[in-house]
Design brief:
Layout lengths: L1 H9 L6 E5 L19 E2 L2 E6 L6 H11 L3 E4 L8 H9 L7 E4 L7 H4 L3 H13 L7 E4 L2 H11 L6 E4 L24 E6 L8 H9 L5 E6 L5 H12 L5 E7 L6 H6 L3 E4 L9 H7 L4 E4 L7 H4 L2 E4 L3 H13 L2 H19 L2 H12 L1
Parallel strand pairs: 1-3, 4-5, 5-6, 6-7, 8-9, 8-11, 9-10, 11-12, 12-13
Antiparallel strand pairs: 2-3
EC number: 2.4.-.-
Keywords: Glycosyltransferase, Ligase, Transferase
InterPro entries: Glyco_trans_1
Length: about 350
């Protein structure tokens, strides 16, 4: 979503080309729209979808030569399908002269690095020792992420880290109309929208819900990309008390996200770490209060009247959920209006747009 918004906002000032996979993570079949004869684009950017047999070093290198870019932008550090191959091609001298900009997307947060820590530390050490990161510039979404990049890679006097917030957009106002006030005494409608992986902490969310005193309906949306972790989550779901109802909403398309979020009373994401977390402002933008961990850039939410951010304490999360469950329709309507206004302020900030313009066009 970060890139789609970038193309939409800066597409008149830069010529964007994207090289990516021809299917979503975990899917066995390519996107159905690829059968069309129309050249695929996203918000005006040309997109090259590569099948599983096309992601070789040679094919990716050729795609870069075909575009002859001024800047090569990598959207992950630990990605082995594209980022690792581009870094290797660059190290071997196979790429045209171009600036290389890398966005780790929260991969250097403490929560992320602690997952498979040994393997990740070894990978970082190998790339540093082999000279693969020499001359690479870095894109951090926040000052916090810039510090995380420095901490993960170690000091380097010549390292360039650019700070530019991720870009978002306000949804069409029709999405707001999807909400209906909850009748007094009815369960709190809680949703979780994210990929199902340890980093997003679904198991912790379920355990927090189990500690609620008030009734709730908990709806899960997202792809189950980690089978072992999903099994752990299912065990926690089976242990939920009778006053907590679980629903599996499956995977949403991009067009379904705003309207679906708006139908709930609160968005709950006790994540282990986010460099931005697009779904958080997306929820706020349709008037949905958020309850999240303090490991994202979205802080001080209670003071703004739009939710809660706090430490990874399941009892505290449960207490906040119970507080919302006890709120009447008037209080919830007031809170939802505050959420929309706060999101509008953030998502239309001209300073964030200018920082991204400088990042790519200066």
């Amino acid at each position: 979503m970060s890139l789609a918004n970038l193309f939409k906002i800066l597409g008149q000032q830069a010529d964007f080309h994207v090289v990516t996979t021809d299917r979503d993570l975990g899917d066995s079949r390519p996107f159905s729209f690829l059968s069309s004869h129309e050249p695929p684009t996203v918000n005006g950017a040309s997109v090259y979808y590569l099948g599983s047999h096309e992601r070789s070093l040679e094919r990716i290198t050729q795609a870069i030569h075909d575009v002859a870019p001024n800047t090569i932008y990598l959207n992950s550090f630990f990605d082995t399908r594209f980022s690792a191959r581009v870094l290797l091609a660059r190290r071997l001298g196979h790429l045209p002269a171009a600036r290389l900009l890398l966005a780790p997307r929260g991969e250097f947060s403490a929560g992320a690095l602690n997952l498979k820590a040994g393997r990740k530390r070894a990978y970082i050490s190998t790339l540093k020792a082999g000279g693969f990161l020499q001359g690479v510039e870095w894109h951090a979404s926040t000052a916090l992420e810039a510090a995380e990049i420095e901490g993960a890679l170690g000091p380097s006097p010549g390292r360039l880290i650019h700070i530019a917030p991720d870009l978002g957009t306000m949804p069409d106002t029709s999405a707001f109309a999807e909400w209906r006030p909850r009748d007094a005494g009815k369960p709190l409608r809680v949703c979780f929208l994210s990929r199902i992986s340890p980093m997003k902490n679904l198991a912790g969310a379920v355990r927090a819900l189990a500690r609620m005193k008030m009734p709730a309906i908990f709806t899960l949306y997202g792809p189950k990309e980690d089978a072992a972790y999903w099994a752990e989550c299912q065990s926690a779901i089976r242990a939920l008390p009778s006053h907590i109802t679980f629903k599996d909403g499956g995977v949403l398309t991009r067009d379904q996200i705003y309207g679906t979020l708006a139908q709930h009373d609160v968005f709950f994401l006790p994540t282990l770490g986010e460099n931005y977390g697009h779904v958080i402002p997306e929820a706020l933008s349709v008037g949905l209060p958020v309850i999240i961990s303090d490991r994202t850039p979205w802080r001080g939410l209670a003071a703004k009247g739009v939710g809660y951010d706090g430490p990874l304490d399941e009892g505290s999360f449960a207490a906040e959920l119970d507080r919302l469950a006890a709120a009447d329709a008037t209080a919830m309507a007031r809170m939802r209006a505050s959420c929309r206004e706060y999101a509008r302020t953030i998502l239309t900030d001209p300073a964030a747009i200018e920082a991204n313009r400088k990042l790519f066009l200066s």
